[in-house]
Amino acid sequence: QVQGIIMAPADRNRDYSDLIDSYRVSVVFVDRKTEMGNYDAVLTEHRRAAYDATMALLKQGHQKIGFLGSTTKIYSNDERIEGYKKALQEANLEVQDSLIKKGHGSNDGQRMMSELIKENRPTAVFVANSSLVIGVYHALRKIDIETTGQLQIISFDDNPWAEVMSPPLTTIRQPIEEISRVAVGTLERRM
User: Looking at CB atoms within 10 Å, which of 94, 106, 121, 132 has the fewest?
Assistant: First the structure.
């Protein structure tokens, strides 16, 4: 018998209460939250992390920074784009819609990166998740751009394969073990 569920909601505007109520169990959301219902959530500071990453790029002299994010309405993606925009605004730079692309998965990542290079070539790109960044590297290989010196890439989610990317990929590491520990502890207290 399931006594509790830890889940990452796929849509911030979806009401999960019927689903959750049908199982009659305690639930804790991780990494994301919804606007519907009142549930415990263990979150990363997505907005702050994206802001800090974008500010780091700005401090390195980048003024034309692209953003590749997800089309899905999930809390983490919405927070990441807001952090990116806030950093640009604080640096008195215009948030250019032509530098913001949204899609889902590696194929879209490849397409969006190719479009970004052709349309409004940035000097750096903030990629909101690891599935998109795989496509970014496919696009860079196809158009023969080395990120070192020509283009800097920062991505959310530090996956083991990131360290073997050539050239290296700068990543934002989420505290997965801490998130897991807090989520389990919160769920145990609710049961």
Answer: 94
The model's pLDDT over 50-100, given as tens digits with 9 standing for 90+, comes to 999 999 999 999 999 999 999 877 888 899 999 999 999 999 999 999 999
Task: Please tell me the distance from the alpha carbon of residue 64 to that of residue 99, in angstroms, as a whole number.
Answer: 8
- Tens of pLDDT, residue by residue over 129-149, are 989 999 999 998 887 765 545
Can you name the residues that pair with 27 across neighbouring β-strands?
Answer: 5
Nearest-angstrom CA–CA distance, 105 and 26: 31
CB count in 10 Å sphere of residue 25: 15
The per-residue DSSP string of 58-76 comes to: HHTT---EEEEEESS--HH
Q: Which distant-in-sequence residues (6+ apart) come within 8 Å of 123 by Cβ?
A: 62, 63, 64, 65, 151, 152
